[in-house]
Amino acid sequence: MLPATIGIISLIHGIDMTKPAKIKLTGLLRWIIPLFVLGAAWVYSTASQLNDAYVNDVNIEDLIDAESLECLDCHSAIRYNLENPYTGEVVSMKMYEELRIDPMEYASSTHGSFACTDCHSFEYEIHPHPIEAKFDYEYTCLDCHSAGEQFAQFNFHTIEDEFMRSVHAPEHIEDFSCWSCHNPHTYKLTTREWGSVIDIVAHNNAMCLGCHGDISHYEVLIERQLTNMLSKHEWLPNQSLHFRKVRCIDCHAAVNEDILIPHDVLPADEAVRNCVDCHSTNSILLATLYKHQVVERRNRFGFFNAEITSEAYIIGANRNYYFNVISLVIFGLVLLGIAIHASLRYINYRKRKKMKASS
Amino acid sequence: MAKSKRLYLYPFWLRIWHHVNAVLMIILIITGLSMQYSNPVYPVIRFDLAVSWHNLAGILLTVSYFIFLIGVLFTSIGRYYVIKTEGLAVSFAKQLRYYLIGVFRGEKNPFQVTEKRKFNPMQLITYNLIMHAITPITFITGWALIYPETIVLNVFGYSGIMLTSLVHTIAGFLISIFLIIHLYVITMGKSTRENLKSIIYGYHETHEGDEEHE
To answer: What are the tens digits of pLDDT across the range A238-292?
Structure first.
């Protein structure tokens, strides 16, 4: 930019600055550059085709058991055929969205290795499903996850306690349960297993917005007008950036050191509103969003809260020890240099004045 | 007896632009420091206010910069910013020697302000760097941080926003260092107040044959 601007200025004012440098590609470079571009394009297209081939090669029969696939015949389709067992008459029925399951998504989910009847009644194997099946006991998370060493790290009991304290507790919202946010057919461990924080944030916030951004889902649970999320957060600078980089629960849930993801969702007026709660070296995001990534804690030499810097930058929370020291040293040296320079100027000026007066 | 001549080097619009620019730069430096070193217990300026003031001052600085650029491109002050490479290294070295040694001995400034040349070689290079490189870098990265969706998400494992902020902060730091030195250099005219008077009233007094400087 600098040479360009000065060049333009000199041209406009008709001043010959200097001869412009000539840039010329040698014979070899003339061939290497197009070959490199073509090569890169070929590698990219081949890699994309290989990836597509891998995705298309996955066979759903290898991932889901035969009985469950029978269930998914109807439960993955938009419409299904219902046959009257007495007359043989067939009608086409709509499969409602909340009863539809994507087989690939299910197979790749945490519970994807289970057969449908591991959790649902065997009566669902009968078509059409008998009415008795609807009255069977529905499992909750703690029915399976309350005991066992492999679940100890998740602290499900603490999660349940937090949930019961939260604004989502059944005493506030009837029919609200773990399933309201965590679909058991698609659930995946995200925070522990996904590397990308931005993906974790998008996934988590989609859970909240499933109700708070969708009037049809919200009004099924609670008889209250849906709040406009954008106008409600108008006070927040760089709104879209905050929504992409931070989870709703990072401000709207109480931090609990014992669990990875806080579940005690607070009333709106108790949410974090103080900017420096995040924008300081003691950022609460380290106890929430970046809790899992905090392996190096506050690194005295290097970036403060370095675990944040791979995907974000939080003014006030990300400072660098070396930059702090270097900037202070430069600043100090400049002030010291000016002080010495000014003093020497003054002393010499007085000396010369005195000499002039005496001569 | 030294001959004195008055040169009108700072037109009215340039003086207004200069003072507005200085105020905006000072606001940007103070609010920027307050945000960068934000402390919940001892906030210099409340964080949200610092963000708003910093953004507003940054937007005004961008407008102010383009007014300056139009002035440089289309008025006679533009010629002062053109760097001629011929003899630049020698005159630069002479000027540096004057600031480091000559000024204490009361030597004559090797650079004489004329109607055609307002800046000595060191000023010429510094002002060009500040006005045509560092200031644009600061406001371009600043605008990118106001609209962060325009920034590449990840650059070699580092957040694009982090790298943009780093460049923005370094450029801002260099401007603050420039500002301090610039304020000191004001005192290095014929008298300690002469340069300040020039930028306020627009006239520069030349003192041919006079060697003594305060």
So the answer is: 888 888 888 898 889 888 777 778 888 988 888 888 887 778 766 666 666 666 5
Q: Are residues A154 and A174 in the same domain?
A: yes
Domain boundary among A118, A137, A156: A137
Specify whether the CB–CB gap between A82 and A131 falls below 8 A: no
Give buried/exposed letters for B35-55 (b at 16+ CB in 10 A, else e). bbbbeeeebebebbebbebbb
Residues 6 or more apart whose Cβ sits within 8 Å of residue B125? B83, B92
pLDDT digits (tens, 9 = 90+) for A117-167: 888 888 888 888 888 888 888 777 888 887 777 777 778 888 888 888 888
Pinpoint the alpha helices (H) of B75-193.
88-97, 103-105, 121-129, 135-146, 160-185
Is residue B136 a contact partner of residue B128, using CB atoms and an 8 Å limit?
no
A144 with A262, same domain: the answer is: yes
Most A CBs within 10 A among B49, B83, B103, B108, hence the mutation to make, goes to: B83
Q: Residue A151, class by beta-carbon neighbours within 10 Å (0-12 exposed, 13-18 middle, 19+ buried)? A: middle
Are B159 and A5 within 8 A, CB to CB? no
For residue A309, list chain B residues with Cβ-Cβ distance below 8 A: 158-159, 162
Count of domains for chain B: 1
Q: Tell me: do A189 and A84 sit in the same domain.
A: no
First CA to last CA distance, chain B: 17
Q: Are residues A255 and A205 in the same domain?
A: yes
The phi, psi pair for A93, rounded to 5°, reads -120, 155
Q: Could you tell me which of A204, A193, A183 has the C-alpha nearest to residue A106?
A: A183
What tens digit of pLDDT does each residue of B14-65 get? 999 999 999 999 999 999 998 888 776 777 788 888 888 999 999 999 999 9
CA A354 to chain centre: 73
ipTM of the shown complex? 0.86
Please judge whether B162 and A330 are an interchain contact, meaning their C-beta atoms are less than 8 angstroms apart.
no
Q: What own/partner pairs with CB < 8 Å and gap ≥ 24 does A268-271 have?
A: A268/A232
Cβ neighbours of residue A273 closer than 8 Å, sequence gap 6 or more: A235, A251
DSSP letter for each residue of B15-46:
HHHHHHHHHHHHHHHHHHHHHHT--SSS-SS-
In this complex, the residue of B40, B148, B166 whose CB is nearest that of residue A238 is: B148
If asked whether residues A208 and A130 sit together in one domain, one would say: no
**CA B102-B108-B114 angle, 5° bins:** 130
The count of domains in chain A is 4
Q: What is the domain range of residue A105? A: 48-137
- pLDDT, residue B210, reads 47
Across A105-128, b (16+ Cβ under 10 Å) vs e yields ebbebeebebebeeebbeebeeee
Same domain, A242 and A313: no
Per the structure, the complete domain to which residue B109 belongs is given by 3-208
